[in-house]
Design a protein that fits this description.
The structure is a homodimer of 259-residue chains. The first copy, chain A, has 259 residues and is α+β, with helices and mostly antiparallel strands. Helix content of chain A is 26%, strand content 29%. The interface between A and B is large, with 57 and 57 residues. Chain A binds a DNA duplex (27 and 27 nucleotides) through helix 6.
Chain lengths: 259, 259
DNA sequence: TCAATAGTGTCTTTGAGACACTATCCG
DNA sequence: CGGATAGTGTCTCAAAGACACTATTGA
């Protein structure tokens, strides 16, 4: 570690406290957990997460969540959007997740990371615009790279918990699906994320009752009877829509905690 | 605003990116929303929040949430605990709330604030240890000081939303009550926080079913039939305890959003 | 025809909401 | 006794769960 003189800084002079603290600040970063559904031909669309490969130390060569330092005047949301854009991803759902600050999370220094949670539609063209320069790819949640950089595995776990708990009272699942989709698609999305089977009859009934779907009149072949294609009526997400899966909730038991 | 040369800094040289960012960092602060129940003789214990008065500009003289800058190596939780201790508050429930970063929230400069959410038991001795040096006091939620400093009114609103939504699926309400309390106390706590009446019979039934209470055998006078005193069996909060008030939820409608 | 998948109907069970009733204190 | 508050019982109704039944495709 070389020590040398680096800078002669020019700063604005203002009242005492502000001045004092302006010289000693923790580092702040943003990391983004972007989920999407695998665009598979086969059954069972997997839930996937976007990871990038690190070039520099520490953890050079390991996979991590897209992220970057926060510039002095930059909005946190903006860092998240910038990082996603760098990976070729443009239109997505984005919300703040949690702020991580365990001191050991970065071996170099203490870094506070504001984590974001994002969803990308399965049919977003951006899905394939990856690998254009950046070393980024999608990973199935059950086949993640062994040790990830920093505490990114923890962040990912919190993000999955959030996604699961939000399925119960939001329409987030619809944001993962393509513009048009079938009821079996939707059911399978819930099952993949919740990690268990749902009853077809009860599921369809709840969805129908919510009146969130617009039939397109078209159908899709599937080996058996073709399934009707629907699109999501975002206009119908009028406030108090609650979606509750008793079976799912009781079976889950472990972990969670929400926030 | 005077411009002058302030420092000739000595820093450690390490790989390029880290070095670059170490010189230009956003400021980071922690603000805490501490709730408690008013220890009133009269009916209807109010929900209260702890505010401190600012001495310095900006917003000198206005009331704000307890908070401070984050020291370079200091844990965020620790800043929250430190601030609460400075106000004489020691044992409390604490969890991270949300990270606020609207650029206009501080007129001096861009400050990222990690907000915390805390609950203090109504009978905590610390409740009265206030005003020992620090200019801090409890405010009823419906009589807050008119303009608060920074965006602290927004932070408070998010904290109230969080408290409300967590009442539905946690035992947080028990953490606000004294060590021993009556069912009417508990019911009134829920009502105060949710902002509406609950049916006594249905409420008692749910609480009893949850088997969370330990009878103490004692009673408390109350103008009519004395109410039985209970204490909370924390050991019984074994994971899957769900507390759901349909009446409350449907009546609320507006706002919310959780996180 | 059967295998496979989509979609509907219906009975049961759970539990929330409403509300009446009983209990125990004071005066 | 009546007023006040505490506490219980019970009927109703909405909605979740289980599961059987029908529908539509391809081979």
């Amino acid at each position: 570690m070389i020590i040398c003189v680096i800078s002669t800084q020019i700063v604005e002079l203002t009242p005492k406290q502000e001045q004092r603290e302006s010289m000693e600040r923790p580092a702040v970063a943003v990391d983004v957990v972007l989920f999407t559904l695998a665009d598979e031909i086969e059954r069972h669309r997997q839930l996937q997460v976007l990871l990038t490969r690190r070039y520099d130390e520490p953890f050079a060569g390991r996979w991590c969540l897209p992220g970057d330092w926060v510039r002095p005047e930059e909005l946190l949301d903006h860092v998240a959007l910038r990082e996603l854009a760098a990976a070729g991803v443009e239109d997505m759902y984005l919300e703040q997740l949690y702020t991580f600050d365990r001191p050991e999370r970065d071996p170099r220094q203490r870094v506070i990371s504001v984590a974001y949670f994002a969803l990308l539609r399965a049919d977003a063209g951006a899905r394939h615009a990856l690998n254009n320069g950046v070393d980024a790819r999608w990973w199935n949640l059950d086949q993640l790279p062994q040790p990830m950089a920093f505490d990114h595995h923890d962040i990912l776990r919190v993000a999955v918990d959030r996604l699961r708990s939000k399925l119960e009272y939001t329409t987030l699942a619809f944001l993962l699906l393509p513009e048009v989709f079938t009821l079996p698609d939707l059911k399978q999305t819930y099952e993949t994320i919740l990690g268990e089977e749902l009853d077809r009859g009860n599921f369809y009934r709840k969805i129908k009752e919510a009146r969130l779907l617009q039939p397109t009149g078209r159908r899709r072949e599937s080996g058996g009877r073709p399934a009707a294609l629907y699109c999501f009526r975002a206009d119908r997400t009028e406030g108090d829509f609650v979606f509750r899966w008793r079976e799912a909730r009781s079976a889950r038991r472990a972990g969670a905690g929400t926030s």
